[in-house]
Amino acid sequence: MDTIETVRNTAATEAVRSVLQNHVLFNVLPTAEKRAIELLLEVRHVPAGKRLFTQGAAADGMYVIHDGRARLKENIGSKLVSVGLIEPGATIGQTSLLEAAKWPHHVIAETPLTLVCLRADRARMIIAESRVVEEHFKRYVGLVEVGERLRALLGNATYTAEEFSDLLSKMGVKLIRADTAVFNQGDADPRLYFIESGAVELIRAPIQGDPISLSRCGRGTLIGETGALPRRSPKGIQTYTAKALTDVTVLVIYQQTVERILALNPELAQRLTQRARDVEQIEADEIAARKRAEGVDLRIKLAEGLSEDEFRAAAKVKAATKFAVIRQNTQADSAAACLAMVMGHYGRKFTLGQMQELTGLNTPEINPDEIIRSAETLGFRAKGYALPYSALKGLKLPAILGWQGYHWVVLLKATDREVEIVDPALGIQKIKRDEFITSWTAADVAGVLDRRPDCGVLILLEPTVKFEKEEEAKSSIRHFINYIIPYRKYYGEAILAAVVINILGLASPLFIQTIVDNVVVHHDVGLLNMMLGGMVLVALLTTAMSVVQSLLLAHTTSRLDMRLMSEFYRHVLSLPMDFFLTKNKGEILARFGENQKIRAILTGSTITVLMNTLMIVLYFLMMFAYSLPLSLIVVVFIPIYIGIVVYFTPKIKAIAQEIFITNSQSQSYLIESLNGIEALKATSNEYFARARWENSFVENVNRSFRQQKLSLMSNSLFKLATLASSIAVLWIGANQVMSGSMSIGELMGFNMLMGLVTGPVTQMVNLWNELQEVRIAIDRVGDVLNVKSEHVTVSSADKIQTQVRNLEGEIKFQNVNFSYNTNDQKRSVMHGFDLTIQPGEHVAFVGPSGCGKSTIAKMVLGFYKPASGDLTIDGKDIKTMDLNSLRRNIGVVLQDTFIFGGTVAENIALGDPEPDMQAVQEAAKMAGSEDFIINFPLGYQTRIGEKGMGLSGGQRQRVGIARALYRRPKIMIFDEATSALDNESEARITQELKTVLVNRTSITIAHRLTTVMDSDRICFIKDGKVQEQGTHAQLIDPEFLKENGYTGLYYQLARTQFDLPPLPASS
């Protein structure tokens, strides 16, 4: 407190008198003692951002906030965590007036503060001199905080000091332990409770159904209003239970005191009455939502003819059998997949990609809190528990379980012996109790404070009213159907050709029947020639139609391929940066291959399904015309074919999903090893890379072999069923021929028809398996297509994005918050970040690794969007700006400059189809790259390999600097741009850039201070905020640091790179 200004002027005198008149500790003192206290009070002014007191340090007196706000922070583990704000009227340190005490929190000025202080040493002097003051302080010091709450409850009411003192004496303080009730529903308890610390959950138990969680309350909340309001509850009956979630301290306001406070402050009575109505409305909405949710189940119950009790008993089993599995692609997907499956169970269908975009659950180690927060945003009431196995049987399922560390699964059913879970990696599994307990993530591993060995992590989810309003995801299949529409003419012609081909196929059985029954029996050569001529004509027409159909399909396929792949690639390139940060390259590449499967179904298989369905109907009609008994035999075997398909398809589908995942991993390993070949060879780890890829590849081969075995079994059983049906038809048909009820020609014709039916049925079976794979492919591609592009699609005039032209270069951050994980703001990179960069100003960011320097620069580029707050460029919100045109006006040099395959000139003028060679040369000269470029055999036209093969690290960075300068942008961003250069080259380029950057705004990020020491302003970033700012000379000047209350963070960094003395202790 030695740097805090202490004053006593007219304004200060008024502040002192205001505290004496209104503060609970002074307002009822006799006049003489009050005057004596007045002489001891001090007024202090504290600048914003200044730390007043340090947690654990000795408290030196009582401080009353007269004006401004201060933030309370605590050391929790290794982190400094905010625990609340204190505002005008708040008092801290009062206990130190009577005895030695320590500050329970760090206290930091949020805004400029005016404090009225009574120092402890002075207070003890007057206590020793005056028995009146001593007794008064002993009585009222402990009631200071209670008095503040009482004054807040009274609001603007008029009352005497004696009335206030009397009310204060009739309020109590009570400690409630965690998991016990402050009061219970139905209790006759006409008291109000003010939560001073801790958290309370309000729970209402309806007449029927599960308890309803009304809300969770924390410090500063009044509860118990439903029993304390005499008009709503004459007998003081509480209508809900208040359960302590943690240890809770409450101020108890007794019935008579409540009545007097409400009489003095009618406005408070109105607020409490409205709160009681809100509680009733929450209950009514929840019950209505439950009834709507049960409506579908009740209709099913009536349709099935079940009684109410039978329906309830079968509900859990039914839920498990109807559960739709969503597979993960990587380990990082398990939490999102589980949440998507539970959403689907309650009637809201989302793909994995859509769920990840909504929730941000796409990192390998998701903790329970992140899942709970995500579920609550989707309309669930979610809560995490540490439970023993014995508690699982009575739960409302499905629930989400921790599994083998940070993997997540869905619990469907639990009995004494086994459980049924859905693992996003393996599908539905039944697991024995002992095996389950071994794999169930222990509570202490996931951070739940329960270390009993038999307890595991479980998250219960229950839909609320908000859940019903959650917009369901659009089906991905519709996206692909839209591709067919422009080619419907070609499809129609191809289908017509297929119809003609199949109708011509019906001629063969008729020809065979006529030849056997008429030509052979009657030796009719003329009829034979006519039949053979007809067969030749049919064959020619069939061939011609087949050629036409193939050409139509080839024409459609080529154009569909082009549209599918090009539009998919265009969409991938338009996705925001965070998509690429959470997906590996192999996974993205694998989805390009999935487009081919989808195209195959859209072109060939769609027509096959339509034709086969039509022809099966026609063939059966003809078969029934030939023979009813033989047709019934074929009909009997159809369910057998279907049964084979139904049994094998899910198994084949599951393995296909596993193959996709391992194939993606194999591709990722290959790409990774080729990208990092230099590091592998330098560390002699080629064997490690090859072994890792081989393990993944062998795993993929094994799964493919399992899939082939299942397909072989499926096809073999199908062929066996087909052979059995043929034998049965021949045996019964031969008997009919011998009995004279059927001719030999008819039997042969029927046999041909049966073959024509079996072919389409076989194709339909094989097609069904393909459709399952394509369904997976559609979901996978849909996961990418459903991710919103970073470029807004214009659908109305007010959504048109501003084209960026002629930037001035002003950049302004206002209270910006940002976290890479949208559901874990505790790990925010930026906290209330404020900074204004003027046009033409050269600003540098320095600070420890991971403090958010590069994030700030990438936010200017639109790579990331603020979670809250505003980022404006030239006064325009970046959210309304067209990102492509914005980025064309910003020159960027990243730490790892990527060089594309092509000429040097093409890399400098990247994206310009006709490079301006004069501008290319000027940019190269300013970047210091012309020296080595002119020594190349073809100069600027020299081709350089992929990723800059043939260029050193420093040369690549200089090409990157030239690329940034080529378009002459008004804003330049240098992110460790000269880190790969030697000191001499860095100094030369830095000097040349000074001329280049005139009238341009620049942001420089660096660890080497020689790069930034000439900047107009240097900002030291730490904990997501600007902690210190100034020029290099200012930030190493102890006097400047002292004047601005800086702790010398930049100075300490500068000492590691320059010869500076230690910072004087007084600074």
From TrEMBL:
Statement: the UniProt record of this protein carries the keyword Signal: no
ABC transmembrane type-1 domain span: 494-773
UniProt-listed GO biological process terms: proteolysis
GO molecular function: ABC-type transporter activity; ATP binding; ATP hydrolysis activity; ATPase-coupled lipid transmembrane transporter activity; peptidase activity
One Gene Ontology cellular component: plasma membrane
Membrane-related topology note: Multi-pass membrane protein
Domain Peptidase C39: start-end pairs: 328-447
Protein's cellular compartments: Cell membrane
Signal sequence interval, chain numbering: none
Keyword vocabulary terms for this entry: ATP-binding, Cell membrane, Membrane, Nucleotide-binding, Transmembrane, Transmembrane helix, Transport
Annotated protein name in UniProt: Peptidase C39
InterPro entries listed in its UniProt record: AAA+_ATPase, ABC1_TM_dom, ABC1_TM_sf, ABC_transporter-like_ATP-bd, ABC_transporter-like_CS, cNMP-bd_dom, cNMP-bd_dom_sf, P-loop_NTPase
Domain ABC transporter: 811-1048
Major site of localization recorded for this protein: membrane
Domain Cyclic nucleotide-binding: 25-127, 162-274
